[in-house]
Amino acid sequence: MSFCEWDLRESLERNELVPYFQPLVDLRSGDVFGFEVLARIERPGRDLILPGEFIAIAERTGLIDEITRQISVKAMQVLAGIPTPYTLSINISPHQLQSANLIGKIERLTRQTGFSPERLHIEITEGALIDNMAQAREVFAGLRKLGCKLAMDDFGTGYSSLHHLQGLPFNTLKVDRSFVSSMTRERESRKIVAAVLGLGHSLGLETLAEGVETDEQAEMLVQMGCDQGQGWLFGRPMPAHKLLELQSGTSTKGWSAKPKDSETQAGLDGMPAERLAQLRAIYDGSPIGLCYLDRKLRYVSINKCMAELDGMSITAHLGRTPKEVAPDYFAHMEPYLLRALNGEAISRVEVRQQAGSGHGKTSTMLVSLQPAFDEAGETVGVSMTALDVSPWNGALTTNSGCASCTCMANLGVEAPQSQITALLGKILQPKAESHAASLSNKVVTKPRHARKERIAVTR
Ligand code: C2E
Ligand code: CA
Ligand code: CA
Fold first, then answer.
1. What is the pLDDT of residue 451?
2. Residue 15's CB: how many other CB atoms inside 10 A?
3. Cys-Cys crosslink for 117: which of 86, 109, 147, 365, Cβ 3.0 to 4.6 Å?
4. Which residues line ligand 1 (CB under 6 A)?
5. Which of 208, 210, 212, 206 is nearest to 184 (CA)?
6. Within a 13 Å sphere around the CA of 435, how many CA atoms are in the beta-carbon half?
7. Radius of gyration of the chain (CA)
């Protein structure tokens, strides 16, 4: 039996509207910091009636204001009675933003219940704001002035999310459930989630992922730098009595909020912007050549040292491929690059380079290739390091090369590991030769599939 306007009016009069609380967790610690209140109707003799059956009717008939009032009062009363200062997130419908006295109504509710407006988070589906940006801006400013936080709900599902993000003072971005639910299966969803999280952080917003149902999703989100989560993994929406039971410690059912893995969190050194800054510092200060190529083997980043090895500027590399920048070099490196794109780590490929058209100075490089994986283990690019060991070339190899093509692959005599180790130690830390072995291990340690190879090319 479907629910109609008269049923809804009757339910509101009979006080059948009840708040359900769904926990919101800090993804790094697993701690619950607040709850989103979701409206339900409990009618004798019927199953619980979900918002899908009555919110649209309420919006159409104007009953939505009364729903917001009743739900907010009840939810604020429940949370105001708990010592822990949880936040409370309430949903506001599109139409309600057009009402200038929304701010006054919310202020009255907080005063009436004694719930601090600072703990109130107001969620607005972004599609709601399209009609009247000027009005929305005014209402947002008033709510912020009151101390409330603002969240953009269902991000990614509306028509002009970016326009709204730019023009309105949101605090939190809620990534829609549809992307989260498919992110462990579909590369595209994963990329969208990563892009949304990056966007949120670069705008200084908190990010919250909706619909987290599995450990795998939670772990992936943590790795991607998502701040907060909501979903069945952490707890389904629950009635007030359940919340109070859990608070008083009489039951723990459904309260397992911690994503179980700690290993991924240990590897998390910061938010994307911080990681970028770290990476920049490493690139700028590195005494060895470093670059990163994407799946299409285009230079995404390259440091000065590596660019100088190619005899070209950093900007001349970016967006181009090694094939365009140094075709001879690429011809020899291509098989290794392809293997790295296939997920194989290759270390210490010895490369002889001749500057110019083959008559210039010859230098010897130790090149290592490390595939970069995304959260699902797919290769997204290759990180390459090159160390110029020419000053010690004689110690490394007695190779004299192939006259016709300068290819030295598999012709040379390998230097003993101890010699390479000592050399790397000298290059990387000249004043601490006793540390050479440990330092060089960092550079030349063979990853699982690592190989040592030797080639020579002309650039
Ligand atoms: P919403 O704001 O996006 O709320 C999240 C919805 O996702 C809720 O559905 C919640 O039960 C569901 N959900 C949470 N975690 C999971 C999960 O891990 N898996 C799955 N499959 N679902 C999950 P619900 O309670 O049916 O509410 C639907 C929508 O109704 C809400 O979507 C919100 O837009 C609207 N709504 C609910 N209560 C109110 C209200 O008091 N006022 C207004 N204006 N809208 C409300
Ligand atoms: Ca919501
Ligand atoms: Ca949502």
1. 43
2. 10
3. 147
4. 22, 38-39, 50-52, 55, 64, 67-68, 71, 91, 93, 123, 153-154, 177, 211-213, 230-232, 237
5. 212
6. 9
7. 30
pTM attached to this predicted model: 0.72
CB distance 87 to 24 below 8 Å: yes
The closest-lying atom of ligand 1 relative to the alpha carbon of residue 20 is 25
Domains in the chain and their CATH numbers?
A: 5-242 (3.20.20.450), 286-458 (3.30.450.20)
Q: Which residues surround ligand 2, an ion (CB under 5 A)?
A: 91, 123, 153
Model confidence over 390-406: pLDDT tens digits?
A: 776 555 443 333 333 33
pLDDT at residue 18, rounded to an integer? 98
Ligand 1 atom 29: the closest Cα is on which residue? 51
Task: State the distance from the centre of ligand 1 to the C-alpha of 38, rounded, in angstroms.
Answer: 6
Specify which residues 41 forms β-bridges with. 17, 49
Provide mean pLDDT across the span 94-123: 91
Question: CA dihedral defined by 294, 300, 303, 309, rounded to 10 degrees?
Answer: 60
Q: Answer yes or no: is pLDDT of 278 > 90.
A: no
How many angstroms separate the alpha carbon of residue 91 from the centre of ligand 2? Answer: 5
Ligand 1 atom closest to the Cα of residue 50 is: 26
Pairing of strands 379-388, 362-373: antiparallel
Q: Within its chain, how far is the Cα of 389 from the centroid?
A: 38
Question: pLDDT for 68-82, tens place per residue?
Answer: 999 999 999 999 999
CA-closest residue to ligand 1 atom 4: 38
pLDDT in tens, 53-68: 999 999 999 999 999 9
